[in-house]
Amino acid sequence: MSAMQTRSTFPGGPGRLAVLQRHLVAVPVSGQVSTAIYPTDFQYTLNNNNVLTLEQRQFYEENGFLVIKNLVSQEDLESFRNAFERICKKEVSAPGLVIMRDVAIAKSEYVPDQKAITKVQDFQEVPELFRYCSLPQIIKYVECFTGPNIMAMHTMLINKPPDAGKKTSRHPMHQDLHYFPFRPAEHVVCAWTAMERIDRSNGCLVVLPGTHKGTLKQHDYPEWEGGVNKMYHGIRDYDPNNPRVHLVMEKGDTVFFHPLLIHGSGMNRTAGFRKAISCHYASADCHYIDVKGTTQEIIEKEVAEIAFKRYGLETAIDLKDAWMARGRIVKGVRTSL
Ligand SMILES: CC(C)CC(=O)SCCNC(=O)CCNC(=O)[C@H](O)C(C)(C)COP(=O)(O)OP(=O)(O)OC[C@H]1O[C@@H](n2cnc3c(N)ncnc32)[C@H](O)[C@@H]1OP(=O)(O)O
Ligand SMILES: Nc1ncnc2c1ncn2[C@@H]1O[C@H](COP(=O)(O)OP(=O)(O)OP(=O)(O)O)[C@@H](O)[C@H]1O
Ligand SMILES: O=C(O)CCC(=O)C(=O)O
Ligand SMILES: [Fe+2]
Ligand SMILES: [Mg+2]
Question: What is its EC number (predicted)?
Answer without folding.
Answer: 1.14.11.18
